[in-house]
TrEMBL record:
InterPro entries: SsuA/THI5. Belongs to the bacterial solute-binding protein SsuA/TauA family. It comes from Verminephrobacter eiseniae (strain EF01-2). This is Putative signal peptide protein. Keywords: Signal. Residues 56-270 form the SsuA/THI5-like domain.
Amino acid sequence: MSPVAMTLPAPGRRAFGTACALSAAVVFAPAVMRTRPGAAGLGRVTVAVGGQGVLYHLPLALADCLGYFRAEGLEVVVRDFSAGAQARQAVLRGAADVYSGAFEHIFRAQASGQACRALVLQGRAPQLALGVSLRALPGYRDPGDLAGRHIGVSSIGSSTHLAASLLLLRSGVALRHVAFVGVGSGAQALAALRSGQVQALCHADPIMTLLEQRQDTRIIGELRSLKAAQDMFGASMPAGSLCAPQAFIEQQPAQAQALVNGIVHALKWLHTAAPADLVKAVPAAYLLGDQGLYLAAFSRVRETYSTHGLMPDDGPATALRVLTHVQPQWAGAKLDPECAYTNEFVHRARQKYDV
C-alpha cells in the first residue's frame, strides 16, 4: 500500500454524433453546445462535461453515438466545459440537468449545501497522468525539481488538481512549493505546456499519450491503471460518474433511468468491443488525426472502465478520505458518503441488459 493510502484517516459511516464532422480544435472548445435532433418520448436532458473528447467520458459518448439514449426515448444535449469542476458548477446554477465528471465533486456539492448523487459509475480509476515538459526541464531528475514550477491542471478544484496534488505529496513535494494553473482541456492544455506557461501537466488521455509519444513530456506519475490506483489509494477509488441533483432524481426518475440504461448498455458494449469497433463508433475528431495514438491511449485505460456501472461499497468513503487528506479544510464539512450515490438505477439497467 502506498504512503498516501496508509496515512489516510479511517472512513466514517449535444449529442456527440454531431461532433463526428468537427475538427479536434472545435471538439475541445469550452462551453460549446451540441445537439442531435429528433429523439422523442422522454424529452431532452442536458449533460455538462469537462473536456468532451477525452477518454474519461467515453461511456457517455458511446451511449449517444451508438444510439442507446435514443433507444430509451431520450434526447441528450451535451454542453462542454474546459474542466469537470466547471461542469459541476453549470448544473448547480441550472445551466445543465446532470454532469459527467469525477465522483469526488459530489462532496464539493454537499459542502455548498447541494444534494447530489452519482447515478452510474463510468470509471474505477482516475485515468490521469502527470508529465514534465522535456523542453522546459530537460535536466529533470526527480519530483523535487518541480519546486517553484507551474503545474497545469484542467482547473483548480478539478480531479486533475486532486490527482496532481496526491502524486506530488507521495513524492515528498510540499504543495506550497508549486503553483497550480488552470489550463483547460484539449488544445488549451497542449498549448499551455508547449508554450512554457506550465512546466508540468496533469491530465487525461488521449492528451497525455499524445504528449508522451511526441516526446513533449516525461510521465512521472501514473493513475491510468487499476494497479496504479490500488497502489495509490489502497482501496476502490471511483472516478468518472454521471451525477445529478437530488431534485432531478425525484422529479425526473424516468429520464434518470434512461440515462443510466444508456451508459450501462455502453459499458457492456465497451467490455467486448474490438479496437476497430471503437474507431468506427466515436466521432472522428476524437481521434486527433492519429488513429493509432488514440487506440494506444485507449489501451492504457481500458481496464479502468466499470464493467457494470455499480458503485463499489468502499468507493465513496475512499474518495472522501482522499479529498480530506489533500484538502484538510473539507474535514470539518458535513459530508456523507452514503448520500453521495445510488445504485438503484444501475440495478434496473443491469436486469434490462443482462450485465
